Amino acid sequence: MLKVAPSILSADFLNLQHDIEEVAKDKADLLHIDIMDGNFVPNISFGWTMLEQIRKVTDLFLDVHLMIAKSNEYLDQFIHAGADLIDVHIENTQDIDQVIKKIHAAKIKVGLVINPETKVETVLPYLDQIDQVLVMTVHPGFGGQQFIPECLTKIAYLNQLRKNKQFNYQIEVDGGINETTAKQCYEKGTDIVVAGSYVFKNDIKNAIEILHKVSE
Ligand code: DX5
Ligand code: ZN
User: Fold this and answer.
1) For residue 26, what pLDDT is reported?
2) Average pLDDT of the segment spanning 15-33
3) pLDDT tens digits for 184-210?
4) In the β-sheet with 170-174, what is the strand arrangement from edge to edge?
5) 84 labelled binding-site residue
6) 110 backbone φψ class: left, alpha, beta (φ>0; ψ -120 to 50)
7) In sequence order, which residues have a C-beta less than 8 Å from that of residue 88 and are 6 or more positions away?
8) Which protein residues are within 6 Å of ligand 1, measured from CB?
9) Does 174 belong to an annotated binding site?
10) Backbone phi, then psi, for 174, in 5-degree steps?
11) What is the pTM (predicted TM-score) of this model?
12) Which ligand is nearest to the CA of 142?
């Protein structure tokens, strides 16, 4: 079944615990946490202290998407705050081999993220070492944007490659997910869809159920 990762960027920050408990009750498969620094992306969300608080109130798997300029320098903080998986952007990360090793040494998972304008081939050298490829289907920074359909070919490519070479990474998609775009992504081989506004701006239970049903 297609997995659903609600992005708390669109949740009610003043009632975050409530919203997290709600998505857990409504069978969200994991939680997606967007860290933005106003530098790598033109928006600021929150830092690792928020992640620490979230970790205290949920057992959900925490998928932490770093959209920050110097991700290499902040890995320890996010590891210690309780991330289960850390996604770093290929566009701004130095020494990717080292980053992968460091995250794995902490016994958590690692994902590489590609922006819409980034060629999928950039992740090729790392595919045998990583747990996830996160395909951005909007320009990172804000919830509620329109899905960019040109990114679908990247998903198909990654899915084919994983079959041919027996790689183990999962394919996650982030940005502009709704019932229609989730189906398109699933058909190309996506394992997990991140959904922010679609989940939190609608009836939460119903939205998660609809996204799960896409794979039926
Ligand atoms: C965008 C973030 C997304 C965002 C998705 O930069 O990485 O995770 O929350 O929001 P929606 O689902 O509304 O496009
Ligand atoms: Zn994200």
Assistant:
1) 98
2) 98
3) 999 999 999 999 999 999 999 999 999
4) 3-6, 192-195, 170-174, 132-136, 109-114, 85-89, 62-67, 31-36
5) no
6) beta
7) 66, 71, 96, 99, 110, 111, 112, 113
8) 7, 9-10, 32, 34, 65, 138, 140-141, 143-145, 174-177, 194-198
9) yes
10) -135, 120
11) 0.98
12) 1
